[in-house]
């Protein structure tokens, strides 16, 4: 089968080539890939800056497709099912995180597209526990973005506890910020998306998908706008989705007393200057949100089924598997919101 393989550490070292098809053994489910999203971590892997990527490996962990084979240990998934899958391929099964099904926190977790061959290929295999059958009316394109949606669910619902009537500010208008915004709107929150002038196209997408306000911080005073929208109190929850330290500090500034700041973005350095006085004096709840876990996926599938979030609305470009590099280059230039690879033209639009 054809696949996009990171062949060695370092910059690029990625090849579109033939590799053996995976087999559905044990509790594994073999999936014919329809779409595979290009994630920020895939870009870091391309650049050689993502330590979790262990070459040689097929990249890709956001995907949807159709089941073509199941292992003898599979009980509930059948050939022909339209599915998506969590990124967890294996865990230690013994630590406290695994016991709580917080697989995102297991130190020995192995993930699809990082340590195990991923979805930028014609086929992928995933363990049955990680596979989710799609509601009939959910498109394979939307389903391919269930993983970033689940990240948004984990941060906004499970960590941020967003509720109806909350006013939230999302820093970062990329794919993750867009998913957080959509999830918060689905819960009845008022949503402000904050970014910079280069985000103009992304602002338009966020507003079209329900965001109440988009703020170009290079041209507008975000603090003044938030004070006006919240009677001077500040937002209830701020989500840092950009990986920019100034955004995190701005989040601490604009959140209300006893409010919550959720950090999703990964900063360029492990230790950064954070405005800790604000955390202290405003009694801010500063929370980390790493990736997603099984409960995040169950909620995401429900939201997809209800139609309260429609991830495909953030897709800016679809490229073929053979033209994967075009999608990567567009993403690295910051064009659009989300680039997706169509791995099987026969499944396009289904």
3D architecture notes:
This protein is an alpha/beta fold and 350 residues long. The protein is built from 11 helices and 18 strands. It has helices at residues 40-47, 96-99, 140-143, 146-159, 175-186, 200-208, 222-229, 245-254, 276-281, 294-306, 324-332; strands at 2-6, 14-18, 28-37, 57-58, 62-70, 82-85, 88-90, 110-111, 123-127, 131-133, 167-171, 190-195, 213-216, 235-240, 255-263, 285-288, 315-320, 338-342. The strands form 4 sheets. Strands 3, 5, 6, 9, 10, 17 and 18 form a 7-stranded mixed sheet that branches. The protein has a 6-stranded parallel sheet with strand order 13-12-11-14-15-16, sandwiched between helices. Strand 14 (235-240), helix 8 (245-254) and strand 15 (255-263) form a beta-alpha-beta unit. Helix 4 (146-159) crosses helix 5. The longest helix is centred in the middle third of the chain and has 14 residues, at 146-159. The protein is globular. It starts with a strand and ends in an 8-residue tail after the last strand.
TL;DR?
The chain is of the alpha/beta class. It has helices spanning 40-47, 96-99, 140-143, 146-159, 175-186, 200-208, 222-229, 245-254, 276-281, 294-306, 324-332; strands at 2-6, 14-18, 28-37, 57-58, 62-70, 82-85, 88-90, 110-111, 123-127, 131-133, 167-171, 190-195, 213-216, 235-240, 255-263, 285-288, 315-320, 338-342.
């Amino acid at each position: 089968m054809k696949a996009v393989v990171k062949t060695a550490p370092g910059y690029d070292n990625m090849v579109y080539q033939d590799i053996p098809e995976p087999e559905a053994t044990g509790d594994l489910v073999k999936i014919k890939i329809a779409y595979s999203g290009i994630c920020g971590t895939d870009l870091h892997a391309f650049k050689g800056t993502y330590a979790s990527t262990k070459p040689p490996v097929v990249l890709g962990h956001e995907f949807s497709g159709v089941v073509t084979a199941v292992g003898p240990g599979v009980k509930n998934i059948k050939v022909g099912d339209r599915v998506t899958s969590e990124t967890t391929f294996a865990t230690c099964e013994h630590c406290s995180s695994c016991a709580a099904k917080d697989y995102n926190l297991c130190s020995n977790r192995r993930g699809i597209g990082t340590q195990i061959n991923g979805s930028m290929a014609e086929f992928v295999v995933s363990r049955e526990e990680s596979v989710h059958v799609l509601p009939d009316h959910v498109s394979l394109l939307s389903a391919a973005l269930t993983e970033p949606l689940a990240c948004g669910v984990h941060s906004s619902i499970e960590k941020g506890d967003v509720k109806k009537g909350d006013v939230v500010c999302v820093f970062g208008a990329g794919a993750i910020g867009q998913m957080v915004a959509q999830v918060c709107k689905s819960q009845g929150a008022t949503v402000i998306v904050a970014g910079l002038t280069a985000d103009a196209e992304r602002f338009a997408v966020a507003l079209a998908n329900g965001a109440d306000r988009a703020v170009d911080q290079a041209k507008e005073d975000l603090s003044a706008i938030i004070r006006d929208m919240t009677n001077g109190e500040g937002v209830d929850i701020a989500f840092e989705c950009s990986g920019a330290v100034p955004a995190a500090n701005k989040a601490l500034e604009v959140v209300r007393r006893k409010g919550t700041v959720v950090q999703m973005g990964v900063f360029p350095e492990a230790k950064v200057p954070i405005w800790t006085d604000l955390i202290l004096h405003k009694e801010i709840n500063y929370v980390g949100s790493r990736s997603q876990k099984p409960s995040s996926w169950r909620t995401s599938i429900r939201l997809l089924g209800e139609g309260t979030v429609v991830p495909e609305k953030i897709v800016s470009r679809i490229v073929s598997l053979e033209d994967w590099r075009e999608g990567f280059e567009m993403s690295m230039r910051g064009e659009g919101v989300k680039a997706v690879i169509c791995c099987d033209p026969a499944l396009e639009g289904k």
